[in-house]
Amino acid sequence: PDMYPGNCWAFKGSLGYLVVRLSMKIYPTAFTMEHIPKTLSPSGNISSAPRNFSVYGLDDEYQEGGTLLGQYVYDQGGEPLQMFPVMV
């Protein structure tokens, strides 16, 4: 609901997966990722921010593979909200 430390959905460890199920099929053109800025971090760093991530399109949530839509890098020195165009 906001960008305050602790009000997030955190992954445990260094690897995680997220599946978003939509009500209809879409053809995305871009994705956004947002993380708190360093200035709001109690420790003064955002080392917990995701760095390398991939986005796949799936036909259903049980599909093991999918269509790779892009591989991206979140720039921890950049803006908190970053947009990544679909690469495929």
What's the pLDDT, averaged over the residues? Answer: 85
Strand fraction band? 25-35%
Enumerate the strands of the largest sheet in spatial order, edge to edge or round the barrel. 1-4
Number of strands: 4
* DSSP helical segment count: 0
**Relative helix content:** under 10%
Distance, first to last CA: 31 Å
- Unreliable segments of 5+ consecutive residues: none
Radius of gyration (CA) equals 14 Å
Shape: elongated
- N-to-C SSE string, H for helix and E for strand: EEEE
Biggest beta-sheet profile: 2 strands, antiparallel
By secondary-structure content and strand pairing, the structural class works out as: mainly beta
Domain SUN: 1-88
Subcellular location: Nucleus inner membrane
Pfam families: Sad1_UNC
Protein name: SUN1 protein
Q: Any overview of this molecule?
A:
- The chain has strands at 30-34, 52-57, 67-73, 81-85.
- The chain has 88 residues and is mostly beta strands.
- The protein has a domain at 30-85.
- A two-stranded antiparallel ribbon has the order 1-4.
- The relative contact order is 0.26.
- The model has no long low-confidence stretch (mean pLDDT 85).
- Pfam families: Sad1_UNC.
- Keywords: Membrane, Transmembrane, Transmembrane helix.
